[in-house]
Amino acid sequence: MKNIDSFTHVRGESLFVDDLMIRQDALIGLCYDSPKAHGKIISVDYSKAEALEGVERIFTYKDVLGENQIGGIIPDEPLWAEDEVHFWGQPIAFIVAKTEAIAKKARALINIEIEELPVITTAKEAKEKGSFINAPRSFSLGNTNDSFSNCEYVFEGETFSNGQEHLYLETQGCYVVPQENGSIKITSSTQGPTQVQKTAAKVLGIPMHKVEVDVIRLGGGFGGKEDQATPWAVMAAVAVQHLNKPVKYMLNRHDDLRMTGKRHPYSSFFKIGLTKDLKIKAFEVEFLQNSGAAADLSPAIAERTLFHATNSYFVPNVKTTVYSCKTNLPPNTAFRGFGGPQGMFVIECAIAKAADEIGVDRKEIQEVNLLAENDEFSYGQIANEVQAKKSWFTAKEKFQLEKLEQEVSDFNDKNIHFKKGISLMPIAFGISFTNTPMNHARALIHIYQDGSVGVSTGAVEMGQSVNTKMLQVAQDVLGISADKVKLETTNTTRVANTSPSAASSTADLNGKAVEMACNSLIDRLKVVASKLLSSEEKNLSFKDDFVFNDDKKTDVTWNAVIAQAMLERVALSENAHYATPIIHFDKSKEKGHPFAYHVYGTAITIVTVDCLRGIYEIDAVKIVHDFGKSMNLGIDIGQVEGALAQGIGWMTMEEISYGKDGRLLSNALSTYKVPDIFSAPKIVETIPLETEGNDMAIQKSKAVGEPPLMYGIGAYFAIEQAVKAFNKNYKPRYHAPFTPEKVLMGLYEK
Ligand code: MTE
Ligand code: HPA
Ligand code: MOS
To answer: pTM score, two decimals?
Structure first.
């Protein structure tokens, strides 16, 4: 089945927040944000702006009737700054005007006086100054101290991976409408409708039942709308509370880039110890996460870095520590992989360094250390149904790695100004929110009396095609055709207390709830059908819009059963709740079984570097990926390709840059380059690994949203290999992204 939105998408008919017809009296909001990264606010003069014709009112923290606080994990983030600012782009006020043009004009008329304070932009600097979000976390397994002394080889190094802009096509935005008796309705482009509802209620000082949040779909989220869609919706909600008129706020691209957080940059220090036969005996890392000026999701992201610090390798002695470093950047946030990619990059660098120093190929070390059944992760979970070796060796065999390597080395022998590189990148990614209590979802199914079905869940459609998967589950369990099923918007009054659509778990969690609800409805409908057919319920099944008796099609249709159920006053609606079984985690011991399962795979990446200009092309990425039993291979391969492109962008060309004063320099698409069709890999080949799938996955179809992003790390090492082929003196920096500028410098360093 195609993505059910594809028809309206290509015709430009799909609705997003910005497409909503707004009320005639609706006003437009615009955020006024800090023009300095750190300082004391001495005074703000709004008088000229307020006097401008068409400006309705300007809101500040003084207008908050509840709490001026939006921090989710730690309450350390005001909605609007009070007497200090902590990052360039921090919201200070909210202008509400008749038009966007007027609001912009007003914004330029605001005068602020700030007494500047020292600005910290890097995690290293923050650590030196003792500036942290919270206490550090450490995972450990075995004993690293003793084991380093028994290692044949021990190497240390430092790595850096930069941030990444989400660049969702649809910028952040919302439309808020007053309802009766102080209630409000928020349409938001958020991955977390409940988070928006809860935060709006807290800031407005009203109960959650007075806030309805509706999400139509997102033009991409990628983690950037898990937490950071909230402030805009809440600002508009405060204005609506005071004005009793609708307020709409869509951020323009510049404002969105400047005011929102991104993937966290990490500086890391590793120590790796190996035996003579290249087994990794011990591994230590200190991760410095650049969290930005407030916690946002940083503590959870830091935790996932620790969970993925050994990637798909078994290391018997591990000690990893992560510091969430407080800096004067916009609070960094969730981004596809959620700290996992940053963790995995470091062990790949450590392996690369060891390989260089010992004088073996990187893949020799990777291969002998791949996870096996019953190996223990540093957090205590025992690996089962492990596909690390299977995906690795399948990739080597199916894609004829030896032949590919031969082609690369032949090419390099024959060419002076172009060099190729090739790398392998295995992945293992844990599926579940690492915070166990978040792993639940609900579905509400209505069968209407004409036999059509409406499905509501907590899942937010953001392009990952979760709605198509939900439809497939409903249609499958109910045995009806796709055109009988409609996916409703995600709405907090229909499905409450939801976790955000994130952690690649949306389809699993919400799909299981849909499955449960549909199964309950079928149980009820079987009773009705059994009377119609004078047959026993256990012999009946629903398929192709008909009732089947002993697997033989009867002449009783789905619609006839529904009509009869109405006459018999049988309930045709059902609500189900799913909570992932088995998983648990004890933070006091940093041990447990946090993941329902892991997703595995291996990518082979081949690149060509132009050694005169420093530019490069990704010739091919060949992937063996563990989809389990994919319920929709078209969609799933689309997720692999999209995530791969995003991972390659992070590792190669996307370069976030802040000035020493904390101002975002890469603040437009002219200064921030993301992969386009010309820089995407020329060939992407994805082969599904044949496995049994996993019962914790919806219809045994494993989660696919985030894991393939980390295949992009392979591009970094393929480029590095090509640079080394040209310049024997090149000293690896382990500093991502590997931009053409860095490549050029590397090609000619002495
Ligand atoms: N794919 C598209 N097209 N757009 C997105 O915003 N977000 C990614 C991934 N794939 C995203 C996407 C992220 S960060 C996550 S966590 C998952 O989708 C969320 O959806 P899922 O849980 O249904 O996989
Ligand atoms: N992944 C993604 N988003 C999250 C998580 C997680 O593990 N925990 C909280 N939000
Ligand atoms: Mo994805 S980073 O969990 O929204």
So the answer is: 0.98
